[in-house]
Amino acid sequence: MLGLNKKDTSLLVIVAALVMFAPFILNPFPSDSGLAQFNAGYPDLMQRFVIFGIFAIGFNILFGLTGYLSFGHAAFLGVGSYSAVWMFKLLSMNVIPAIALAIVVSGLFAVLIGFVSLRRSGIYFSILTLAFAQMSFNLAYSVLTPITNGETGLQLTLNDPRILGESATADGSIPVTSLFGLEMRSTYEMVVGPWAFQFNAGYYLCGIIMLLAFYLSIRIFRSPFGMMLRAIKSNQTRLNYTGLNPRPYALAAFVISGMYAGLAGGLMASMDPLAGAERMQWTASGEVVLMTILGGTGTLIGPVLGAGFIKYFENIFSKINDTVLHNWFSFMPDGLEDFVVFLIHPFIGKGWHLTLGILFMLVVTFLPGGLVEGGQRISRMVKKKSDDDTNAKTTPAE
Amino acid sequence: MDAIILQILNGLDKGSAYALIALGLTLIFGTLGVVNFAHGALFMIGAFCAVTLSKILNLSFETVDPTQTDFLGNPLKVKTPYVMEWFGAETGAAIIDWAVPLAILFSIPIMIGIGFIMERGLIKHFYKREHADQILVTFGLAIVLQEVVKYFFGANPIPTGAPDVFKGSFDFGVMLGFDPNAIIYPYWRLVYFAFSAIIIGGVFAFLQFTTFGMVVRAGMADRETVGLLGINIDKRFTIMFGIAAAVAGLAGVMYAPINSPNYHMGMDFLVLSFVVVVVGGMGSLPGAVLAGFLLGVLESFASMNEIKSLIPGIDQIIIYVVAIIILLTRPRGLMGRKGVMEE
Question: Digits of tens for pLDDT over chain B (343 positions)?
């Protein structure tokens, strides 16, 4: 179907089903139960899942296929956000032109940076991209303040022209982002018994775009172009000797992944029309690296899993506090309860980054293939065990 | 003229910090071939050694002084630091005052210990892996160290003062024969520069004039042959890692009075230090030092108002611009050795 083989089609269908039914899947606990805080089925978080999923899918096209580790990808995300917000300010509140401009501008930006950075490889490439991203970040904070509004961040105001739209709504407030009139923030709530499922227009827009992005990435992975990118990763010198210039291919991959980042930035601004320079900081670039590695570099589904995993635990872990912990461990004797809470305390709430760092080190050390490799290992182990069982049954008979 | 000298001086203290961190990075890279993204965290831990020591020295007990009363009329509780009790009021006060220089002694064993643990516990397992993996695992380690420090010391910067003698500034211009008030320079920055010059000189002397240093240099040039000669080069490289960690830590200790330590100062310096290493040339120790000072001074020149009005924003990006130009025109860096990290 759609030019995919059977395995990829089923993967796409599974991902599509997960995205479409996410409001149900992510909301398994009744809202009045104690576990309700583990629900992730509210629009804000679900939007972040898919947006960062797009970001990580794009990063994976560069890092997973060509092996070029970029430490400055957040710059494209930031550029995308800024251009989308400018579109809202100048043209209209429709998200389509904003997203389109975000992709185009970040693509152009990626051509520039990629053209220069790709002249080096390995660690030099990482440092060049890092330098470019930090440069953009510093400029956004200082000189480019007329464009970026500096530390405050770019926001919509009532005085914006908005040629095709209206500067202010009838009741004098700033108009909201919409898709041909369908407001991005509009949410339909479906109450089934104790459960409240939320269906948000913005989430579904992001979700559909993510599916398109995912489909495109599958096509790239399976195409001759993708094969060429893998060749760059495995042996660039040999590629040179066969008479092929690897640089245009690497540049194309860089630009594509930059455009994915821009798309993510544009969507982020469409959901919440704000853009700040901190989105371009190198720690933000580090985050997408974390997502991709954690999920599984060079695999199709890995980056999406990684993005979901990190964003989910970021939200949930940082919400757990000592009171919640005391509730959980209240079955223990008092002294032991306090001790256990004391032990866990540094890893939760604001300490979530500590957990993330440790997890990341463990993954890089023991599971370089990320969650996907972990899953494969487990399934292989289960398979082997069942094989052993069948063998054990058959051997005595012989 | 005086403006130029002032900018050079202003660039020296940041340049010293860059040079020290870059020196440590290059030592680790040259010996172990590992790209250490956690080096900035070591710098930060050094600064927090100073904070910790000054906190320890300020540990005090409370006594009730019946002769004085507070504003409510109750007897006043007076806090006396233990050091004042043990060494007498004056010596005690002097010890507290000199907390940051004393932290040098305090931090060396700690930093070397952390360096050993890091190398033996984690980095050892990454020698044979790709550079990308090394970057990633040390990046994770940097996050962990940063968060641990944040957990114990909080997210706000902690002001840590220099000794009273070195507080304030002096008129450096008069000494050189310029007008008074032309070049005002804080004492501590001069101390910092002198200190880093001593450390850098010490590291070079150690590598150049001791047998140990000779073996290490030989190992950097050809690890395998040195190993075949029956020398345990791994052990020596581990020690070098400890020394590199100590250099970064010392840079951090002395930097505490210049910039109040906060948990993310390491990350802020790390990016720039990497740029410094690349500009100086991967694996070249003199290159790292030279590039450190050069970029520090350049940065300070770029922040002059005259230049800023000429090219707005240049002070924010000068280092990166220089790095990009160097990487594209002379990828080996200013003093890079042939064959190091060249594809």
Answer: 777 888 888 888 888 988 999 998 888 888 888 888 889 899 999 999 999 988 888 888 877 777 777 777 777 777 777 777 787 777 888 888 888 888 888 899 999 999 999 999 888 888 888 877 888 888 889 888 988 898 888 888 888 877 877 777 777 777 777 777 777 788 888 888 999 999 999 999 999 999 999 998 888 888 888 889 998 888 888 999 999 999 999 999 988 888 888 888 888 788 888 888 888 888 788 889 999 999 999 888 888 877 777 777 777 788 888 888 888 888 788 887 665 555 4
Q: How many domains does chain B have?
A: 1
How many beta carbons lie within 10 A of that of residue A70, not counting itself? Answer: 30
Nearest CA in chain A to B311: A143
Q: What residues of chain B lie within 8 A of the CB of A64, using their CB?
A: none
B97: nearest Cα among B163, B187, B166 = B163
Q: Is residue B261 part of a domain?
A: yes
Structural domain containing residue A211: 6-280
Between chains, do A127 and B327 touch, taking CB under 8 Å as contact?
yes
* Cα-Cα-Cα-Cα dihedral sign, residues B300, B43, B45, B109: negative
Domain contains B99: no
- In terms of residue numbers, what domain contains B278? 2-59+107-329
Enter the pTM of the model. Answer: 0.85
Instruction: Tell whether B19 is covered by a domain.
Output: yes
Number of domains in chain A: 1
ipTM at complex level? 0.80
B169-171 and B75-81 as β-strands: parallel, antiparallel, unpaired? unpaired
- Indicate yes or no: CB of B331 within 8 angstroms of CB of A120: yes
